[in-house]
Recover the amino acids of this structure.
């Protein structure tokens, strides 16, 4: 009965916060979820819009129905091409993008795309048309090019806006990045009991390491997220530990660590999970190039860069309703 009161409090919190219909419980469930968006579907009068995949399969624009009046944004990959066939000549065209994940921004218009030229030093700037009278192909590969002045990454939105001067149609797409992706990391890890360190060393000495994470996303026939392998990647790191790998002395205070310079250069490799968690085997680099004994340990921690991005605006997202006001009928 020692923990009776603690268990009662936890059960009470569970009932209050996670009960069905609780607003906080809903916001808690959606907090770690990937970004999803619903919009009013376009009428499809001004143009016929479809998506051409890299395997030459073509899909008409059909946002997945969400409610009677809303549909989900259509998923495209970084290898897709958006095909726009205007119903009338001189249809006005605007391309807008919005960052929603790592670098959140408002919608802004894209006037040009930039990319390298084969065997040339100079980059090519290609301006997008403001009016189209014939079918126009918009390549997602161009929009995700690293030489652009903007960065279009995972879950970011692309809007194709068409107008004939009287009405406007907007086609909303969500970007899915496929293929190889490489991300810089800044990992904060703790050592685990799985090690070759011996006795008397501080178990939870933090390790701060810079690294590079490598992952690969496969796409199925419809180019959607497939089998979960995109949630697992390889990681390589180099950093420092806040205590030496060998020698006794027990737990060091912060002052002793600074005074004694008790830091060790570390190298590591392992897995990156769920785009933020890392598990790595770490070795002391002095044991490779110096005179110290080569020892190893297993570190477990988080990518602080990604963790900061994921928890941005956490308080208002969890404790505010954040619903939009009632819609107002407008001319367009």
């Amino acid at each position: 009965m020692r923990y009776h009161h603690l268990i009662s409090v936890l059960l009470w919190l569970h009932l209050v916060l996670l009960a069905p219909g609780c607003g906080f419980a809903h916001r808690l469930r959606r907090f770690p979820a990937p970004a999803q968006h619903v919009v009013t579907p376009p009428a499809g009068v001004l143009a016929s819009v479809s998506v051409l995949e890299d395997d030459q399969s073509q899909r008409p624009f059909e946002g997945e129905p969400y409610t009677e009046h809303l549909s989900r944004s259509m998923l495209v990959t970084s290898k897709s091409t958006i095909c726009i066939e205007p119903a009338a000549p001189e249809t006005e065209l605007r391309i807008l993008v919005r960052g929603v994940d790592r670098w959140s921004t408002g919608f802004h218009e894209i006037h040009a795309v930039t990319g390298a030229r084969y065997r040339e030093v100079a980059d090519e700037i290609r301006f997008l048309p403001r009016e189209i009278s014939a079918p126009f192909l918009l390549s997602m590969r161009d929009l995700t090019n690293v030489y652009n002045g903007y960065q279009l990454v995972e879950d970011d939105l692309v809007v194709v806006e068409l107008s004939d001067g009287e009405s406007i149609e907007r086609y909303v797409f969500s970007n899915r990045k496929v293929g190889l992706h490489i991300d810089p990391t800044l990992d904060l890890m703790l050592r685990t009991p799985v090690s070759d360190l011996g006795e008397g060393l501080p178990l939870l000495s933090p390790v701060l390491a810079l690294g590079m994470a490598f992952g690969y996303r496969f796409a199925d026939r419809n180019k959607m997220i497939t089998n979960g392998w995109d949630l697992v990647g390889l990681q390589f790191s180099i950093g420092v530990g806040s205590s030496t790998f060998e020698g006794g002395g027990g737990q060091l205070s912060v002052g002793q660590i600074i005074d004694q310079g008790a830091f060790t250069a570390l190298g590591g490799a392992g897995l990156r999970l769920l785009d933020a968690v890392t598990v790595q085997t770490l070795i002391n680099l002095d044991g490779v190039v110096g005179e110290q004994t080569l020892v190893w340990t297993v570190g477990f921690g988080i990518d602080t860069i990604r963790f900061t991005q994921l928890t941005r605006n956490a308080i208002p997202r969890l404790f505010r309703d954040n619903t939009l006001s009632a819609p107002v009928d407008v001319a367009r």
The helical segments are 4-18, 23-30, 140-143, 254-260, 286-289, 304-310, 314-319. The longest helix spans residues 4-18.
